[in-house]
Amino acid sequence: MVSAPVSISRPPSYGAIATKDGESSEKIDAVKGYHHLGDSHHRVEEQWCLAAWFTYPYFKWRPRWYFTTIRGAEWFHVYLWLLKDLSWTQDWNYLGIFSGFAAVFWSLFLMFQAWRLRNFVEVWHGFAQFLWLAANAWWMFAELHDHDFPDEPKLYAAHTKHAGYIMLVALCWLGLYYLLVRPLHLLPRAPEASLAAYDDAGIFASRFPSLFPTW
Q1: Which residues, in sequence order, are CB contacts of 124 under 8 Å at separation 6+?
Q2: What is the dihedral of CA 70, 74, 80, 84, to 10 degrees?
Q3: What local confidence, expressed as pLDDT, does residue 69 receive?
Q4: What is the pLDDT of residue 10?
Q5: Which residues pair with 182 in a beta bridge?
Q6: What is the per-residue pLDDT for 99?
Q7: Which of 24, 126, 162, 201 could be cross-linked to 214 through a Cys-Cys bond (beta carbons 3.0 to 4.6 Å apart)?
Q8: Taking the C-alpha atoms of 41, 46, 48 and 53 in order, what is their torsion angle to the nearest 10 degrees?
Q9: Distance (Å, rounded) from C-alpha 166 to C-alpha 133?
Q10: pLDDT of residue 64
């Protein structure tokens, strides 16, 4: 016998955030923990998992979200890098160069955000990411150049060698953190507000936010 589905009402909001155009967007209080509902618990938990795919967020998307939240900035960085790789595979020279170096400079923006929030662990890893992206873009530039300008001196051999050195530095930089800095606790712990900024995507599930507080 299949019991009736359990309905869970929308949790109360705790205020509205005013936007520039006079509108307001509700922020939903993400209550931690599961709602134990007796025998229906597992069925409700399954409904929660499905809710992430079939519900919309309360957050109304705006372009400035990419600049005002950490997760938004990180996700925008992924878009730039995908555009760079797409351009690379399709031999789109100028678009590849633009998107590649845009992604490199955006990684500096992410490092700045981490520094501003005093999250020095993120700064450390961000520097390694910057080196990796810079090496990758340098390698891509040489390959696209040699493809589009076959009569000019070849750059691929020299640039791939330079990129290898840069990636080796990035690997050593990360190794230094995990072998020395982290075991000896040489970096200060990030403030709670900083940790919350990295955990909060700024988007809330329209249902069951207790299970998907940062969805």
Answers
A1: 173, 177, 181, 187
A2: 150
A3: 81
A4: 40
A5: none
A6: 93
A7: 201
A8: -170
A9: 10
A10: 76
Global confidence as pTM: 0.65
Q: Which long-range contacts does 116-119 make (Cβ < 8 Å, 24+ apart)?
A: 117/70, 117/190, 117/191, 117/193, 117/194, 117/197, 118/188, 118/190, 118/191, 118/194, 119/190, 119/194, 119/195, 119/198
Q: DSSP assignment of 142-174, as one string?
A: HHHHHHH-TTSPP-HHHHHHHHHHHHHHHHHHH
Q: Give me the sign of the Cα torsion angle 196, 58, 113, 106.
A: positive
State residue 28 phi and psi, 5-degree precision: -95, 135
Given this model, what pLDDT does residue 51 score? Answer: 53
d(CA 142, CA 163): 10
Most distant CA atoms of the chain, gap in Å: 76
Helix (H, G, I), strand (E, B) or coil at 2: coil
Q: Which residues of the chain have pLDDT under 70?
A: 1-61, 200-215
